[in-house]
Amino acid sequence: MQVEKALTIAGAVAAALVAVADRKVVWAGGAPAPGRLDADAAVGVARGALALVELTDPDDEFGDVLITSAAYFHVLRLVRGPDGADLVACLVLRRTTASLALARHEFKMIANERGAPAAPAPAGEAEPDPDPGPAPAHLPRRRSGRNNAPPAAATAAVPNDWFFLLSQPFTTEDAVLDRILGTLRHL
Questions:
Q1: Region Disordered: what ranges (predicted)?
Q2: Residues 1, 89: contact at Cβ < 8 Å?
């Protein structure tokens, strides 16, 4: 994965790659630079989300994790590095300038690039061991040609009293509408 490209996504503030095995930051760009706690959190959240996807349907494909705050979107994707190591790719987007759908699509395309050169190690860090040992098991992938409907067990687990939410009036967020209108005017 060429992480540097992630910083060219509209609204990108920072991007990083974190090794799942040792939870070290392999590459970081933008600001702020992630620390050890950030790396631990990214790996923990991504692995937890993957476990939930596998719990629902072991054959389903894990996409990404979206974490929102008042000012930023944080997008996490599990990717395989050129050396076969599992990595968490992290992208931080400023809410006021990013198109979330477009940014997630671009980030997915960047993350899925094959044959990308290994990301450079941060300054002062030793080069990784050229023989890391056996590669970990591959991440789950969706079977081709299968029905994408959720399994019966997943739909049966939804409580009936949740369906009242469907009849609730639609509410809007003025800031989101203003941003959409501003973008359309810009076009």
A1: 116-153
A2: yes
Q: How far apart are CA 37 and CA 6, in angstroms?
A: 22
Nearest to 92 by CA among 105, 114, 107: 107
Report the distance separating Cα 48 and Cα 175, nearest Å: 31
DSSP type of residue 63: -
103 three-class SS: helix
Q: Are 87 and 19 in contact (CB under 8 A)?
A: yes
Task: Give the model confidence (pLDDT) of 36-87 as tens digits.
Answer: 898 899 999 999 998 888 888 888 888 999 999 999 999 999 988 878 888 9
Round to whole Å and give the CA distance between 125 and 79.
Answer: 22
DSSP output for 37-48: HHHHHHHHHHHH
Q: Give the predicted TM-score (pTM) of the model.
A: 0.59
Question: Would you give the distance in Å from CA 120 to the centre of its chain?
Answer: 20
Pick the CATH number of 3-111 from 3.40.50.460, 2.160.10.10, 3.30.450.30, 2.60.40.10: 3.30.450.30
